[in-house]
Amino acid sequence: MTRLLERNSERPLYEQIYEQVRDDILSGRYPNGKKLPSKRALAEQLQVSLITVENAYSQLIAEGYVRAAQRSGYFAAYSGEAVANPGSKHRKLPENIKRDESMPQTGQQEFVRKSAGEEIFPFSVWTRLMRSVILEKGTRLLQPVDNGGAYELREAISDYLYRARGFYTPPENIIVGSGTEYLYNLLIQFLGRDKVFGIEEPGFPKLPKIYALNNVRFEYIPLDNSGMRVDELENRCVDIAHISPAHHFPTGIVMPISRRREILNWAESGERYIIEDDYDSEFRRNGKPLPTIFGSDDFSRVIYINTFSQTIAPSVRISYMCLSDELRERWREKLGFYACSVPAFEQYTLARFISEGYFERHINRARKRFKRVSELSDRLITGFGNVKISEENAGLHFTVKLTENVSEIVEKCAKCGIKVTPLKSYYASGTACESALFLVNYAGADEEKLIECLQ
Fold first, then answer.
1. Contact of 438 with 213, CB cutoff 8 Å
2. Strand locations in 144-265, DSSP E?
3. Helix (H, G, I), strand (E, B), or coil: what is residue 273?
């Protein structure tokens, strides 16, 4: 590291250290396997606290740039091609577009299967925004919006993605639809029914049903410890890879930077595409959010998709996807005749909920609550003895290895609103899975009952 830290910058010191070490790894200054300075040595060199360096290294480990070896230290873990200017790979806000500095600058957040904390949702705020929309828009609410969605909502989403996910996409490149299932169906029409889709195995159980009902060919692609295997994409002649790299469901795997580069290279080497499903990126508990593959795409091969059904409530059937400039033009030509499927009233209300900062404040409250619930769930399950918990740092689920007291654990968790499901039930192709692995989903957990059970 040769650059000085900006002590007076609004950006946290740990984030500056993270970026410098990341850039040194990507540029080849620290090649794969090279040992990095110890936390203490780097803290002394930069004159910062030990915890600041620890937070930077934790983020690098989470993203797959660094691996930690017990009693040995930290080592570079990126084996891809050197990147001359790593920072330029991310889509940034154009200079002619002003960033709203009055908005809350949040970092990581969480995901919701049931709802992002129904009891803490600001209904009074939502109701007030609904009234203001009716008063200000009046009969204009009866008019159709652009086929991509109300511009106010797309603009609010664009600003939010820049703040929370670190990439900029113009509002014109955002498509709003009534739920991810609806957008999946549109993507099949857009990309072509003659294409072969690759889905993660194990994975989200609705996906194969959607592809099957659309009469398109799909292949189950096995995972390893880094996520979807690129060699299997090649072997099975897949054209479109449907992945959840930030936090795979159900295993919780986070795709490291080296695998992200591999899958991008795979897409760029032919007429191939990646559907990046970022379904629970808002709920990462420690460190800043992981970078998106969409933000590193220079060849218009990635389609980014996310939803508000998870972060607000299942009844809010509003999802969106981001396209590159090239794909957006193709979308206009091929599917531009479709009307937006989300009522204008709901879109305008959500736009104000986001642009006035209420969405991010709600997410932050939900994140704190689910962090407590996660810790209580950990304590409840580990109290039964021989268990091993993993992938608990993001989303609203984690995996656990249970070898004894299984029925008792499942029963006790159910009483607290926690769903424990065998991981093998998420395999559809008959692939063998260790029977002792379970998925623990605590989205619907009752915090008070959890505390009672522990007492």
1. no
2. 174-177, 197-201, 218-224, 227-228, 240-243
3. strand
pTM given for the model: 0.82
Which CATH number is correct for 363-454, 3.90.78.10, 3.40.140.10, 3.40.640.10, 3.90.1150.10?
Answer: 3.90.1150.10
DSSP H helices, 269-357, are 325-335, 344-355
State the distance between the two ends of the chain, measured CA to CA, in whole angstroms: 49
The sign of the torsion formed by the CA atoms of 245, 251, 252, 256 equals negative
pLDDT at 198 over 50: yes
362 in Cβ contact with 116 (< 8 Å): yes
Architecture of the domain spanning 118-360: 3-Layer(aba) Sandwich (3.40)
Query: Which CATH architecture is the domain 13-89 placed in?
Result: Orthogonal Bundle (1.10)
Instruction: Give tens-digit pLDDT for 232-289.
Output: 999 999 999 999 998 898 988 889 999 999 999 999 998 899 999 998 878 876 667 7
Query: Is residue 36 classed as helix, strand or coil in its secondary structure?
Result: coil
Among the listed residues 207, 213, 210, 355, the one whose alpha carbon sits nearest the alpha carbon of residue 221: 207
